[in-house]
């Protein structure tokens, strides 16, 4: 999951950059969230929450708290957040390197979209982002499924229901045991929360007493015997992202 922040005081530019990023990420079938901030002050008010972002696109020439100052605040909390300066000015390049910015891109460049694409390619390579896909023989034919888009699998009698997010949630049917699929998907971040449910931990947003809340607001039961292990696994996962 790419969590991206755009921090810029130009509303039009925020929209333009957001559209380019969405186009790139959708083309490469990557999961993402993009948040926008209209000033450096607004962004740094997040405090330590700034480090939840994989990438921060920063305008340098903002009023009150500029991009360089914002980047320095980010670096007080983390060296891992990837900072990209996107600005109309070229006289801050040295300052950008001091805060370990991965790129310095100029607004108004006629090749701006291509530069954003190249920047994203470099970031994907740097963090070793991998799109995991797997072939399944469903009852209506063989399909390749993007594992990051799979919410959960439910066992019903002698069949499995694969709940997958595309433009909307889709369900695919496979005649197999959940035990077998669990072994195949365990290394890809799927956790057994119940005798009948195998869930993609990337889509669990919260664990409450004996239930898992998923990103689509579905609540699934966690069996009593599995609750402690599931909760610990979720806590470990949250600590890694």
Task: Tag the structure with descriptive keywords.
241 residues, Rossmann fold, OB fold (Dihydrolipoamide Acetyltransferase, E2P), five-stranded parallel β-sheet, five-stranded antiparallel β-sheet, 7 helices, 15 strands, 32% helix, 33% strand
Kindly describe this structure.
The protein is 32% helix and 33% strand. Strand 4 (82-87), helix 4 and strand 5 form a beta-alpha-beta unit. The longest helix has 17 residues, at 11-27. The strands form 4 sheets. Strands 2-1-3-4-5 form a 5-stranded parallel β-sheet, sandwiched between helices. The chain has a 5-stranded antiparallel β-sheet with strand order 10-9-8-12-11. A 3-stranded antiparallel β-sheet has the order 13-14-15, with helices on one face. It has 2 domains: 2-126, Rossmann fold (3-Layer(aba) Sandwich), CATH 3.40.50; 133-240, Beta Barrel (OB fold (Dihydrolipoamide Acetyltransferase, E2P)). By secondary structure, the protein is an alpha/beta fold. The chain has helices at 11-27, 40-44, 67-77, 93-98, 112-126, 178-185, 227-240, and strands at residues 2-7, 32-37, 55-58, 82-87, 103-106, 133-138, 141-146, 150-156, 159-165, 169-174, 190-194, 197-200, 204-208, 211-214, 219-221. The chain has 7 helices and 15 strands. The mean pLDDT is 89.
């Amino acid at each position: 999951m790419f969590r991206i922040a755009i921090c810029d005081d130009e509303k039009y530019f925020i929209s333009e950059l957001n559209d380019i990023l969405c186009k790139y990420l959708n083309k490469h079938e990557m999961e993402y969230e993009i948040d926008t901030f209209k000033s450096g002050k607004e962004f740094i008010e997040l405090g330590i929450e700034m480090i939840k972002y994989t990438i921060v696109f920063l305008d340098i020439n903002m009023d009150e708290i500029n991009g360089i100052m914002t980047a320095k605040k980010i670096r007080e909390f983390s060296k891992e957040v990837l900072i990209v300066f996107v600005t109309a000015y070229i006289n801050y390049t040295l300052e950008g390197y001091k805060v370990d910015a991965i790129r310095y891109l100029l607004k108004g460049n006629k090749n701006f979209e291509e530069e954003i694409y190249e920047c994203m390619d470099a970031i994907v390579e740097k963090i070793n982002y991998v799109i995991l896909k797997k072939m399944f023989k469903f009852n209506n034919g063989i399909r390749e499924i993007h594992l990051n888009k799979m919410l959960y699998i439910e066992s019903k009698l002698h069949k499995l229901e694969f709940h997958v997010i595309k433009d909307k949630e889709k369900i695919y049917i496979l005649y197999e045991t959940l035990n077998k699929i669990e072994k195949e998907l365990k290394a890809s971040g799927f956790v057994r929360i119940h005798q009948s449910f195998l869930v993609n931990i990337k889509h669990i947003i919260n664990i409450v007493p004996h239930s898992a809340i998923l990103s689509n607001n579905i609540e699934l039961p966690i069996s009593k015997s599995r609750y402690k292990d599931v909760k610990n696994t979720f806590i470990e996962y949250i600590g890694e992202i």
